[in-house]
Each structure stands twice: as structure tokens, then as C-alpha cells.
Amino acid sequence: MIETPYLLYLGHSSDPADIKTSRGLAVFRPDISIGEYRHDNCPLTLNLPRMDFAAAHAAGARTLVLGIANAGGKLGEDLIVDALAAMAAGLDIASGLHHRLNAEPRLVEAAARLGRKLHDVRDPRPDIPIGNGKKRAGKRLLTVGTDCSVGKMYTTLCLASALEKRGLAADFRATGQTGILIAGDGVPLDAVVADFISGAIEQVSPARSDDGWDLIEGQGSLYHPSFAGVSTGLLHGAQPDALVLCHDPVRPHMRGLPHYPLPGIAETLDANLRVARLTNADVRVVGIALNTSTMAEDEARALCASIEAEFGLPTSDPYRFGVETILDRLLDTPLLAAIA
Fold first, then answer.
1. Interval 226-263: pLDDT, tens
2. Same-fold call for 6-120 versus 139-337
3. pTM of the entire structure?
4. Which CATH architecture describes the domain 6-120?
5. What is the pLDDT of residues 137-161, one digit of tens each?
6. What is the DSSP string of 6-67?
7. Where are the alpha helices (DSSP H) in the chain?
């Protein structure tokens, strides 16, 4: 159990995409996010009180969340130094990086000496089965994307919340470190051995008979050369009845790969449907979610309307404009209405 409240770490980050874990917690769990820690050369903020480690502990913080996502998930020297200082001030450490806290001798020694806890959120469960593709009861929606970090987690959480407000049972199924910290449960999918990816999703989204929905957080993109393998296994294991495509309309290229252009919406829709049909031949797309956070409101609304007209699918920025039109399509889709 990771103790809360959290102090959210920004460190030396300058790219907003690199602090997505800290930002996700600040947005969706403000009740347990007490402040932010950043160095003077960090131009970013979560609009939380800026605190050093001692002040955060005095204010009630119990865990420093290293909520950044750098290339390769590395635990750099600056992070180690800051984590050591945070433990000395009385804080436990939680991290979703690929480089485990418990693999760094200096952190392990300090934690033992100071009585602190190290939480590696990206450690998968040891009992993950191999996927079998058997049809299981329940209704499932999966978010997919043209790229990684385009808003799949935000969209999934917004859909889950909106379904609950309509009085429908809905569960957010986390598949990444940020989602796990928000939900308190889930599977760190990109840390699962490849043969077990689909089985991990079958495990985290089991059969359900309560007429509710599993809203499964997507990962990566079928068009990202680095992460398409995770996206493929997720599509197979999720066995989704419905897909929502997430897209950043102002991104110039695949994240981290300037030599790869972003794929088009039409080709991404087609590719995800083809892959998903292996385990659910009746899968449908019910909406398009745009990340318009860098656009003016009038421009963003106009773009949503344009894409909606082009593809005949409800289109919105879920966090900015809501997901009601997408939910209307989801619940009115003939195939799904028959089992709703």
C-alpha cells in the first residue's frame, strides 16, 4: 500500500509530455496530491504549492511520486539524488519508471537505514496467465491512438466517470503506471513479458455479469515502431466491443521519432479494427477523442466538428468538452444495445 498524500515530482523536466504521471495525478486525484517539487530550471507547473521535501512532509505528504516519463524509463543520477534527499526528509518513494528503485543500491540502503519504503509501480504480478482468446461475458471499451501520449488515459477516465454519472456500472482498468497510481490497481502492461500481454488484460478485465462496462486504458499505437507490440497484445486481450480513437491533431511526428510521420485517422481506425477482430469480430468504433489542449477553444470546437463530419463519428476533447456524444453512440450502437 502506497501511503498518501503525494508530493508530485517534476524535477528538471521541460517537456510537458514528460510529466504526464504527475499531471495525471494532479488532475484526477487532487484529493491526495498535496504539492509539487521542481528545480529552478523547470518551467512547468501543476499549479500546486511548490514545496521542498521537508516542507511537504511537514504539510502531511507521505510519498514522493517520481511522476515523470523519460525515454527508456531511466532512473538518472538527478532522480537518485533527489530521492535520497526525500527519504532523508521522511518521505517514501514511488516510481513507475522501467529502471526499478529496488535495483539501485544507494536507494535500497537508504530505505533500509531510514525505515522508508520503495514502491516500483511497474512491477507486474507474478501470476499472469497466457491469453487464450476465449469469449468472456461483459462489455468492454478500449481506447486506442495514433501515437503514444495522445490522451488515452484521460479519455478512458472521462468515459468511466460519465458512465457512472448516468447510473451505469463502470470500472476503469489501468494499464500504465499513472493509471495504476490513480486507480490503486491495474497492470503495468509495458513491463509484462510479451507472451503474457494478452493474458494480463484478460486477467485485469475478467468476465462480468452485472451489465456494467470495463473501460480499458490503451497503450502506445499500432503505428509506433517502438510500442506497437504492446498495443497489439492489448487489443487481443481486451476483446473490446467498442473502440475510441485518440489523436493529437497538432503533433508533427510520432513521439520520440522525428523520422516517422503521424498516421492518418482513417488508416489508424482500419488497422485497429482489423487487429481487434481476432478476438471480437463485432468490435465497433464509437468515437474520436482529440487532445486540443494547445488550441484556442473556437479552433478546437471547429476541428471536432470537421472531423465528426468527415468520419461520421462523435468527436470531442473528452477533458475539455466532455464525452456525452460518444456515450450516446456507445449506448445506442445496435450490437451493444442488444446486450445492454
1. 999 999 999 999 999 999 999 999 999 999 899 999 99
2. yes
3. 0.89
4. 3-Layer(aba) Sandwich (3.40)
5. 999 999 999 999 899 999 999 999 9
6. EEEEEET---GGGGHHHHHHHHH-GGGEEEEEE-TT-----SS-B--HHHHHHTT--EEEE-
7. 20-28, 53-58, 77-88, 105-114, 152-165, 177-183, 197-204, 228-238, 265-276, 297-311, 318-321, 324-332, 334-337
